[in-house]
Amino acid sequence: MTKIDYKFNIGIDVSKQKLDVSFNDKEIAIFENNEQGFKQLLKLIKNKENTRIVMEATGGYERPLAYFFQDRSIAVSVVNAKRVRDFAKALGKLAKTDEIDSHVIRLFAEAINPQVMEQKSASQQSLDSLVHRRDQLVKQRKMEKQHLETVFDKEAKRSLEKRG
Hints:
By secondary structure, the chain is α/β, with parallel strands linked by helices. It folds into two domains: 8-112, 2-Layer Sandwich (Nucleotidyltransferase, domain 5), CATH 3.30.420.40; 122-163. It has helices at residues 35-44, 63-71, 81-90, 98-112, 122-150, 154-163; strands at 8-14, 18-22, 28-32, 51-56, 75-79. The chain has a five-stranded mixed β-sheet. A hairpin with a 3-residue loop joins strand 1 and strand 2 (18-22).
């Protein structure tokens, strides 16, 4: 698969409440991490065909944003946070703020040209969410079984057995 070099990379540091967005070396903006914030950001993207949105994987907080832009045919790359952090260290950027992170994510995209996420249908997105939830429950059940092996109090044991 051939990688496309995008003329504009937008680096986004995603958190639960907000998006810190780096458009270039001087222009940074903050939006709410919700559909209203996504729409405000979309309005600022002028050349949609030549733009790639780049963000770190944040344990799920990035998914609604990624799917929002994919649904509007805007390229999205979700990159490994450790790779971006290592890149920042290589640049000598040891400080870590949301603003700096969004800037480094954009620079990472320009230097590395990460692969764009594959477009997923609504049913595939739903299936991915269900698989993720199943994985969470399996891990939780395993932890409860481990707790059960070390608990000797009758009430605590009964509580654990109910959940397992």
